[in-house]
């Protein structure tokens, strides 16, 4: 062996990683799944206490067979029991689904973690029925900053508990003793910034107050099966992002206490499957969020408000996303455009008309008769239309855009629904070749895009 080879061999024998400071080694181990990190203990005795000191404990079991369940239980038990009682935990995640396992251990694991100055806890259980969370849970969370509870949990909320450090609260599929108890909890979270309530329900009550003086992000998704219409009062003056999916059956189902001057993003899915009622509720909501910059409306919401055109002015709106289930009536679309003078981007993720409408019905949108919206002549830069069916109404709208869109720079149209020999496809190609200031991008079934020169 030559001298160079000997030097390389000596270098390989040196354990330089173990010479790194503890703080750096722990940071490296924290990037690994917890079971992988624990296996590194066999490398050196030097590593064993480091694994026990990991700040984030993510216990995840997604394998549904007996050997896995036994191993998972033993692993969590041994890891928590071996960890020094005075050693803090920053984050604790317990996630499993499938079957009816770990019920005799879950609450003890949770209480063990909460007794270590915990900052973040995420619980996600896949039990076939509701799991009753330990009664002292919220009393033990007074110093926690992030709480995630997901999937079929029953939670008792004490009346006088205060979560003074809680910044993030996300609840999915949680059952409370009452909607009022949840409202009272939110009042006692003075620094809460991010709140999500999805498919949750209260055993009693029919109204929910969502209050937060510093709340910035709010997501509310009602239950998939609406047993009754829940009255929702929202008092969140600092809100910046708002997402809602809810059923309405009256004028006062969803109320904002005041306007939202700081709102930037809103995604609205409010619907009524019966005789259209609650339209005033919908337009009342639009008036409260009219400072929004990015607005998305669902297909159900669009169908709900067709025929009602008392739109507020959206002076700050720069991006509008409209999901169309049937067809976007020209008057409805015109009202949106006329009341959004600074709009820069317009998107139709589901197209301008449904396939059913394209096949069985033809209506004249009469775009040439409509006054040109200010946004189209001054600010609108991009339009994206998916699922283009090629009926006259769609072509009329594209021609209207290209003819009057003084600021348009890019119009993208997905034409995968059009046969190669369709007249509409050829007409679009002609428009593409004639377009000069605006690029007309036609996206075919292969996802390729051709552009005008």
TrEMBL record:
Domain of life: Eukaryota
Domain F-box per the UniProt entry, residue ranges: 14-62
Any Pfam family matching the protein: FBD
InterPro entries cross-referenced by the UniProt entry: F-box-like_dom_sf, F-box_dom, FBD, FBL13/AtMIF1-like, LRR_dom_sf, LRR_FXL15/At3g58940/PEG3-like
Annotated SUPFAM superfamilies: F-box domain, RNI-like
Gene3D superfamilies: Ribonuclease Inhibitor
Protein known as: F-box domain-containing protein
Organism annotation: Daucus carota subsp. sativus (Carrot)
Lineage: Eukaryota, Viridiplantae, Streptophyta, Embryophyta, Tracheophyta
């Amino acid at each position: 062996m030559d001298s160079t080879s000997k030097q390389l061999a000596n270098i390989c024998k040196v354990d330089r990683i173990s010479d790194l400071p503890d703080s750096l080694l722990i940071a490296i181990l924290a990037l690994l799944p917890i079971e992988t990190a624990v296996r590194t203990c066999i490398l050196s005795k030097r590593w064993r206490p480091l694994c026990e000191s990991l700040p984030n404990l993510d216990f995840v079991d997604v394998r549904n067979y007996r050997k896995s369940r036994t191993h998972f239980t033993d692993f969590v038990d041994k890891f928590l029991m071996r960890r020094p009682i005075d050693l803090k935990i920053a984050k604790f995640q317990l996630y499993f689904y499938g079957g009816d396992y770990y019920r005799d251990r879950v609450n003890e694991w949770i209480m063990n973690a909460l007794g270590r100055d915990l900052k973040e806890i995420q619980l996600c259980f896949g039990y076939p029925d509701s799991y009753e969370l330990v009664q002292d849970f919220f009393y033990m969370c007074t110093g926690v900053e992030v709480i995630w509870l997901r999937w079929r949990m029953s939670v008792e909320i004490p009346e006088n508990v205060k979560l003074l450090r809680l910044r993030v609260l996300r609840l999915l599929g949680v059952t409370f003793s009452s909607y009022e108890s949840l409202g009272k909890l939110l009042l006692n979270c003075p620094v809460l910034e991010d709140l999500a309530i999805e498919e949750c329900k209260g055993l009693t009550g029919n109204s929910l107050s969502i209050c937060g003086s510093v709340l910035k992000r709010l997501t509310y998704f009602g239950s998939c099966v609406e047993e009754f219409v829940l009255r929702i009062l929202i008092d969140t003056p600092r809100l910046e992002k708002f997402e809602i999916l809810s059923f309405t059956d009256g004028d006062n189902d969803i109320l904002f206490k005041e306007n939202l001057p700081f709102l930037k993003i809103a995604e609205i899915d409010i619907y009524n499957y019966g005789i259209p009622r609650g339209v005033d509720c919908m337009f009342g909501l639009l008036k409260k969020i009219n400072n929004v910059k990015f607005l998305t409306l669902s297909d159900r919401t669009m169908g709900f408000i067709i025929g009602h055109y008392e739109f507020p002015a959206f002076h700050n709106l720069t991006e509008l996303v409209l999901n169309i289930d049937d067809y976007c009536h020209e008057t409805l679309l015109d009202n949106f455009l006329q009341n959004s003078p600074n709009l820069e981007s317009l998107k139709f993720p589901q197209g301008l008309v449904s396939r059913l409408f394209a096949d069985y019905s033809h209506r004249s949108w009469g775009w040439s008769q409509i006054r040109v919206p200010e946004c189209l002549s001054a600010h609108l830069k991009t339009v994206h239309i998916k699922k283009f069916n090629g009926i006259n109404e769609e072509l009329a709208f594209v021609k209207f855009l290209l003819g009057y869109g003084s600021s348009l720079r890019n119009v993208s149209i997905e034409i995968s629904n059009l046969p190669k020999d369709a007249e509409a496809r050829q007409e679009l190609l002609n428009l593409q070749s004639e377009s000069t200031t605006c690029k007309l991008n036609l996206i075919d079934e292969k996802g390729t895009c051709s552009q005008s020169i």
